[in-house]
Amino acid sequence: MIQFTTWDILRGLLLATRWTILLSLVSFAGGAIVGATLLFLRIGKRKAGRIAVKYFVELFQGTPLLMQLFLAFFGLGLFGIDVPAWLAAGAALTLWSAAFLTEIWRGCVEAVAKGQWEASASLGMGYIQQMRYVILPQALRIAVPPTVGFSVQVVKGTALTSIIGFVELSKAGTVITNATFQPFTVYGFVALIYFALCWPLSKSSQILERKLNVAHRGH
Hints:
Number of domains: 1
Helix content: over 70%
Radius of gyration: 21 Å
Strand content: under 5%
CATH topology: MetI-like fold
């Protein structure tokens, strides 16, 4: 029987952590790009665009991420299309992130006082100029803390991708446990690694929220 040292277990988990970090970055960045596009449709003047984005957000916020992963991985397989686990995981997490970021940012835009719209309109600014020079700079300051805070949920969400065979930290923990029969040690390390990834992000969100609130009040 092969003997596994504590270092062997930790090294295996750290190697898998690279994929957790990569998937988190890709999903968050992709979600931010898609979310920014949807945001402009959501707050735009075209009713069709607003309604379409509203239903998109409700769909992805109102259904479990696990189900979305299943559909992304197995859904296309029904039509004979082979979808790699990493592609299904990235696509599902990107759309899921986009739905939440769209709503977070919409709330931040709507948090800007209506007087700002009226004042900029009185200066003869068009809608695009208002958004670029007046509304978005203020909304961005409001959006930073909740956006950073949501990144924690993205990191945690990657754990669910193990169900479709993507080997990230959670999946690696299961594989190593089956090989070593040391669940307490393995999952203890898994918990510590997740904490090491998520705690700095949570703390950064809290610090940014305090600083930006103070700056806003001072202004």
